[in-house]
């Protein structure tokens, strides 16, 4: 199990400053947010020298990275010139900076079916373009008319179309709760067999607030009980570092409890067996 932190926690800083600060704070796994006019977006236009500086800092400190691809203008669900251009730029960034995975939002299409098929086709191209060890992770997004990937079924359908085990799901707890509300736990469980990782953040069900666990109303205790301990990426995607650290402590508490609970269940069942 890996804890990772999103540079979204330092959205007010430029991406190089944010990465530097998180490394300085001791984080060993970081998700680089490629969005935000003054944050991740400038990565697309960054000089090679600067990219190389980031790469060497990351390497020197043994940090692993994930790359949250830009959202605006990047639309695998209905590919256009801008999508192709942004992808080409992202590829050239990844020639300098090593990442373990790239994360994408499928984007929008007036037809869900066409959006799913287009996203799958584009992911196949991405798989060909990327080195073998880099995974592709699809994220569930909040409901908006025409958006693809608002339900876990749509993500699974994309994965089925691609049919490659380099592709998985990043389950965003906040987005899932906004869409599924009281069916949140059931909806999450559908993603479990395909999980690459989690974007962990809390909210009140209306807005994407990126709060720490416990500040909103998402039933995280039951969530982690159902999830159990898994070898996945736990990406803390809150709007401050403090909130990320807080969420991490909460998760550790939940996981110790759920392990104890599982242990009790197995002791009880052993006991029954002996009788
Ligand atoms: Zn997210």
Any overview of this molecule?
With 275 residues, this protein is of the alpha/beta class. It has a single domain (2-274), classed as TIM Barrel (Alpha-Beta Barrel), CATH 3.20.20.150. It is built from ten helices and ten strands. The chain has helices at residues 15-24, 36-40, 48-60, 81-96, 112-129, 152-162, 173-180, 184-191, 220-227, 241-274; strands at 2-6, 29-33, 64-68, 101-104, 107-108, 135-139, 147-148, 167-172, 195-200, 233-236. The strands form two sheets. Strands 1-2-3-4-6-8-9-10 form an eight-stranded parallel β-barrel, surrounded by five helices. Strand 3, helix 4 and strand 4 form a beta-alpha-beta unit. It binds zinc ion.
Rg, alpha carbons: 19 Å
CATH superfamily placement: Divalent-metal-dependent TIM barrel enzymes
For this structure, the CATH topology is: TIM Barrel
Q: Note poorly predicted spans.
A: 263-275
The pLDDT mean sits at 94
SSE pattern: EHEHHEHEEHEEHEHHEHEH
Distance between the termini: 36 Å
Summarize the structure.
This protein has helices at about 15-25, 35-40, 50-60, 80-95, 110-130, 150-160, 175-180, 185-190, 220-225, 240-275; strands spanning about 1-5, 30-35, 65-70, 100-105, 105-110, 135-140, 145-150, 165-170, 195-200, 235.
Topology of this structure?
Blueprint: E1 2-6, H1 15-24, E2 29-33, H2 36-40, H3 48-60, E3 64-68, H4 81-96, E4 101-104, E5 107-108, H5 112-129, E6 135-139, E7 147-148, H6 152-162, E8 167-172, H7 173-180, H8 184-191, E9 195-200, H9 220-227, E10 233-236, H10 241-274
Parallel strand pairs: 1-2, 1-10, 2-3, 3-4, 4-6, 6-8, 8-9, 9-10
Antiparallel strand pairs: 5-7
The structure holds zinc ion.
The site of zinc ion (ZN) has 4 residues, from loops.
GO molecular function, one term: DNA binding
GO biological process, one term: DNA repair
Domain Xylose isomerase-like TIM barrel: 26-239
């Amino acid at each position: 199990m890996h804890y990772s932190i999103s540079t979204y926690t330092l959205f007010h800083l430029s991406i190089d400053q944010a990465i530097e600060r998180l490394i300085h704070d001791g984080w060993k796994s970081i998700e680089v947010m490629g969005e935000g006019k003054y944050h991740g977006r400038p990565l697309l236009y960054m000089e090679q020298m600067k990219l190389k500086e980031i790469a060497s800092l990351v390497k020197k400190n043994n940090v692993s990275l994930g790359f949250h691809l830009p959202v605006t203008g990047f639309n695998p669900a209905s590919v256009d010139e801008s999508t192709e251009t942004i992808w080409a730029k992202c590829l050239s960034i990844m020639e300098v900076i090593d990442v373990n995975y790239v994360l994408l939002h499928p984007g929008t299409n007036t037809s869900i079916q066409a959006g799913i098929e287009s996203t799958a086709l584009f992911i196949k191209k991405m798989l060909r373009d990327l080195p073998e060890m880099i995974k592709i992770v699809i994220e569930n997004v909040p409901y908006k008319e025409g958006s693809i990937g608002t339900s876990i079924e749509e993500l699974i359908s994309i994965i089925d179309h691609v049919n490659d085990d380099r592709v998985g799901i990043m389950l965003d707890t906040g987005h899932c709760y906004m869409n599924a509300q009281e069916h949140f736990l059931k909806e999450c469980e559908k993603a479990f067999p395909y999980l690459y990782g989690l974007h962990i953040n809390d909210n009140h069900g209306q807005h994407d607030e990126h709060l720490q666990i416990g500040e909103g109303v998402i039933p995280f205790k039951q969530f982690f009980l159902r999830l159990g301990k898994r070898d996945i990426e736990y990406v803390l995607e809150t709007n401050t570092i403090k909130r990320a650290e807080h969420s991490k402590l909460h998760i550790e508490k939940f996981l110790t409890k759920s392990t104890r609970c599982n242990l009790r269940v197995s002791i009880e069942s052993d006991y029954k067996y002996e009788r």
